[in-house]
Amino acid sequence: MSSSRQLAAPGAQFVRATRSDGAPLRYLFAPERESFDEFIADGESWTVRQGGHPMALWDAIERALVARQDNGSPGIETVRLRVTDRSHLYWIDSSPLLRWEHRLA
To answer: Chain centroid to CA 73: how far?
Structure first.
């Protein structure tokens, strides 16, 4: 995953598999958030089915991708980090849509 995608869905794991008929299977899991996405091949494109609570993984990732593209697709070197005893705050440039706070347990 790119930096903005991983920051938008921390801890998410992407899994690729293949059905016995050769059809691709793609899943995104965030076990600690009890959320998942299933990517269903639809010709040349994919349909995303989301489940779980409270986080819709693909919605968060899609927002991050669009915001990153709207801001000129900045590279990994533009990610900034502030660490406190309560959270890690990540941001890219000055866009409020490119900010993620990961609270510590």
So the answer is: 16
Q: What is the pLDDT along the chain (105 residues), one digit of tens a residue?
A: 467 778 888 888 999 999 999 988 999 998 777 889 999 988 889 999 998 876 688 888 898 889 989 989 888 888 899 999 999 999 987 778 889 988 887
Query: Do 39 and 47 form a contact (C-beta atoms < 8 A)?
Result: yes
Helix (H, G, I), strand (E, B) or coil at 61: helix
The pTM (predicted TM-score) of the whole model is: 0.75
- Residue 9 dihedral angles phi and psi, to the nearest 5°: -135, 70
The residue behind tokens 């593209």 is 69
Domain ranges of the chain: 3-103
Rounded to the nearest 5°, which phi and psi values hold at 51? -155, 165
**Kind of pairing between the strands at 79-83 and 87-92:** antiparallel
